[in-house]
Fold each of these.
Amino acid sequence: MWLDSHSQIFKPVRSALGYVLYPLHQISSAPSVLIDWFGDSAKSRQQLIAENAELSARNLILGQKIQRLISLETENSELRELLGASDRIGERVIVVELVAVDPDPFSQQIVINKGLEDGVFMGQPVLDSHGLMGQVIDVLPHSSRVLLIADSNHAIPVQINRNGVRAIAVGSGKLNELNLVYVPDTADIKEGDLLVSSGLGGRYPRGYPVASVATVEHFPGKAFAVVKAIPSAHLDRSRHMLLVFSDKVSNVPPQSLWQVK
């Protein structure tokens, strides 16, 4: 060792041995390198799995929040439309919310979240931002039942906004259809005509949109035309509605409600 450290004689030999032994050194260290590499790979894979799970959970939460925001945006839009409708009405109104729908397929009735404690009364008109929805037929302290205009037991006197021709709109049992009964075959009524409440009978105030005429059919030899109309109110969609308080509409006992059987 002393000779090697104080002499340059063995330097070429040492260099040659270094070239020869380098592959053996690499081979001998390979297991530890592979172990470290596999350890790092496994660790990285576990981290990726954990991060993916966390990101998936965040995506679900964000998706739920987005859906809720969309729902709130729709609700706010509906409430803004109701506020606009209340300004146009010019009468005292309160906003109510739908809480239940009658499951009977042959009955078009809903339940709202206002009742006697809020001044709701029998026969009170209910409307959304687009038109008349129906009338209150049962009142409890904190809720009320509403008969929709599409119910087959409901009828409302209407008139054509264009010319004042009067008719009666009867519910068909379908939310998207009303029938006009006893319309003379010669009556001036056309598809697209707007039907508004006439105010006759004292049930509904005059001038509220009820429906638009969809079809008018004439049959030879028949005294009356077959007229179908589409309700103006969104009977199958509106969640918020207005209860109208008017001097022209008063509390009416159940037995005097005008219904067509």
Amino acid sequence: MLTGLTLLALLTIAASLMFGSSRLTPAQVTDTLLHGGTSQLHAIVYGVRIPRTAVGIVVGACLGVAGALMQGHTRNPLADPGIFGVSAGAGLAVVIGVYAFGVSGSGYDVLFALIGALLASVAVFSITAAGSGTASPVPLALAGTAVSALLDALTSFIVLSDRDALNAYRLWVVGSLSGRALDITYSVLPFAIAGLILAALNTRALDNLSLGTEMAQGLGENVLRARLTGLAAITLLTAAATAAAGPVGFVGLVVPHIARATVGVGHRYTLTACALLGIALVLGADVIGRLIGGTGEIEVGIVLAVLGGPFFIYVARRRSLVAL
């Protein structure tokens, strides 16, 4: 099944390069990739489509794996990576960058978003550890919800009082792959790679924790270390994705369910499937947004919200999925 998912991801990567609001034939795109093409074609393929495809690959893989980690550690099928306050922290940091420091532009947005996302996750864990002395799933979810609400309120206060901050936030918060340069991918790639490595190291612990905390401890698992490793992976992956494309929802919720239905519940294969499915979902939604938007396009965050909303309701109504 992983071979089929790999082919699916490769097909969506090819579609992302071939199709867009600029109507180019596959032959034109292929010739440009192989021989450079005309200056106009080179600008479209190398200046627009390759960078946004690269960002889509990073965002999809990061959010897919982060979603599987989040649901595995909380044992909640409705858990989403954004529950740690990562998206809210990144949004507030972008707004503060414009409001307090007068900076704007994609490079600065990525820097501030990364800092805000990481600080928000640290705050959530610190609150949880101070209250319960451990990284337990329920306190983490509650602390993440509370911190997210606080950060969203602060963000709303700033954007309603400053027009420049509102404009910057309005363009960032929708979740989009358009207008992203390769520099953004290079900026977030170290965080994404570090998160994926930690996720790979966390697979055995996740399998043990799926049996219950007491059973995992009986098997010799250090639960606190496993939780910390998972939290660090989720933070790095979600921070990288959010900084690169803004808050892209529903990927971390939808992908793990499809992956478990495809390859089973063993996290060694589930995490790989989540990365491949995340890439396919994000790039597929981006291509759909380009094609149905006419001369413009519909942002990937909007397309995923339309697709993910019904799936969320479906998951919430299936009692059999609650026992993860």
